[in-house]
């Protein structure tokens, strides 16, 4: 992590009423099963702490809180919505995935 002191007001734009996307992840019921998730759009939250507390109260195995922002496109494309993770983790963070291809020989 790197922290750098900046001048007050050195923000290009500030969104007054941010919205959030919360992904609640739950472990599979069996070892061979897949993780499953529910996604929630959160509006009118006082701050991100309120959103994190709400996510924790749902008692998922793990969760992600994503801040939503508009303007991810450029002048030649339509405006897109982007997401930035501000809290939580995905269930596969820190894990590697191995993909193997099988072919039939008979």
State the assembly state of the protein chains. single chain
Computed over alpha carbons, the radius of gyration is 19 Å
- Count every beta strand, where a strand is a DSSP E run of 2 or more residues: 4
Main sheet characteristics:
4 strands, antiparallel
Mean pLDDT: 80
Portion of residues in beta strands equals: 25-35%
**Cross-sheet strand order for the largest sheet:** 2-1-3-4
Low-confidence stretches: none
SSE run? EEHEE
Share in helix: under 10%
Tell me, what's the shape? extended
Structural class: mainly beta
**Count of DSSP helices?**
1
Distance between the termini: 53 Å
Folded structure, characterized:
With 106 residues, the protein is mainly beta. The protein has a domain at 20-88. Helix content is 9%, strand content 29%. The chain is built from one helix and four strands; from the N terminus they run ββαββ. The protein has one helix spanning 48-57; strands at 20-26, 36-42, 62-70, 81-88. A four-stranded antiparallel β-sheet has the order 2-1-3-4, with helices on one face. The chain is extended, with a radius of gyration of 19 Å. The termini are far apart.
Gist?
By secondary structure, the chain is mainly β. It is built from one helix and four strands; from the N terminus they run ββαββ. It has one helix at residues 48-57, and strands at 20-26, 36-42, 62-70, 81-88.
Keyphrases for this structure?
106 residues; extended; 29% strand; mainly beta; four-stranded antiparallel sheet; single chain; 1 helix
């Amino acid at each position: 992590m790197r922290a750098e002191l900046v001048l007050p007001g050195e923000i290009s734009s500030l969104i007054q009423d941010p919205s959030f996307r919360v992904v609640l992840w739950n472990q599979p019921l069996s070892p061979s099963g897949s993780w499953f998730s529910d996604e929630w759009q959160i509006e009118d939250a006082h701050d991100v702490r309120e959103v994190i507390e709400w996510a924790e109260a749902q008692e998922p195995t793990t969760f992600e809180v994503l801040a939503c922002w508009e303007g991810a496109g450029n002048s030649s494309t339509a405006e897109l919505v982007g997401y930035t993770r501000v809290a939580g983790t995905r269930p596969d963070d820190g894990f590697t995935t191995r993909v193997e291809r099988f072919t039939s020989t008979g």
